[in-house]
Design goal:
Order of helices and strands: EHHEEEEHHHH
Oligomer: single chain
Shape: globular
Largest sheet: 3 strands, antiparallel
Distance between the termini: 22 Å
Radius of gyration: 13 Å
Number of domains: 1
Structural class: alpha+beta
């Protein structure tokens, strides 16, 4: 997993932090990453695998995120590209895809993810 673009994501969580938030173990979080329920990138500053904090909401994975991640990975995007896509504003939404997912507008986000070339 390559280094992330530190300017797009404001807050990061380590896998241990994610485990605490979800009430599970770090091993289970690693499994969620392998299954593309979450994605993690190695941050240059810490050299540690980290998950954008905005992937979690009220102690759960943001609704619609796993399906969106699957679509993006199926299009061949890397972990870093997935995070960049989710955190880059899209005028057609409007706003960032991650914000639309957090607002329960996952259908709109997945529609855009399906047409990535």
């Amino acid at each position: 997993m390559a280094d992330s673009n530190p300017t797009l994501v404001e807050a990061w969580l380590t896998l241990s932090d994610v485990a605490r938030e979800l009430g599970t173990s770090p091993n289970r979080v690693r499994q969620l990453v392998r299954e593309h329920q979450l994605t993690a990138v190695r941050r240059a500053e810490t050299r540690e695998l980290s998950v954008p904090a905005e992937f979690l909401l009220d102690g759960e994975i943001v609704k619609g995120l796993p399906g969106t991640l699957t679509l993006l990975f199926d299009h061949g995007l890397t972990e870093v590209e997935v995070v960049e896509w989710l955190f880059t504003a899209d005028d057609s939404l409007p706003g960032r895809p991650i914000d639309a997912l957090r607002e329960d507008r996952g259908k709109e986000v997945r529609r855009r993810a399906q047409v990535i070339v």
